[in-house]
UniProtKB/TrEMBL annotation:
It comes from Nocardia pseudobrasiliensis. It comes from the Bacteria. Transmembrane segments: none annotated. InterPro entries: Dimeric_a/b-barrel (IPR011008), Rham/fucose_mutarotase (IPR008000). This is L-rhamnose mutarotase. GO terms for molecular function: racemase and epimerase activity, acting on carbohydrates and derivatives.
Length: 104
């Protein structure tokens, strides 16, 4: 499944947010993969962030990461850069699909 999310940075947090993502802990990357994610890309346009996550199950991904100390620490660090705390909950399962290129 593919999930798209939108988040927004605090004014002036762009450089620090990008720098932090050059230091994503290997333990967190391994946990994200173990929880079923095969791809997670983040794009930035000014203060707007757009995430696309390919995973087996978004509910499973969230559940498996929720209690991990490395994820808790990472989310705490990221919250310092975000204008609104990210709601990764399954009830906020991302942006609705408007259009997709049909299969050939």
């Amino acid at each position: 499944m593919r999930i798209a999310l939108h988040t927004r940075l605090l004014p002036g947090a762009e450089a620090d947010y990008q720098a932090a993502h050059r230091e994503v802990p290997d333990e967190l990357v391994a946990a994200i993969r173990a929880a079923g994610a095969t791809e997670w890309t983040i794009w930035r346009s000014g203060a707007d962030l757009f995430h696309v996550i390919d995973c087996d199950s978004y509910d499973r991904l969230l559940a498996e990461l929720a209690g991990l100390p490395v994820n808790i620490a990472w989310q705490r660090r990221m919250s310092a850069y975000l204008a609104v705390p990210q709601d990764y909950s399954a009830t906020n399962a991302g942006l609705p699909v408007v259009w997709r290129l049909p299969d050939a």
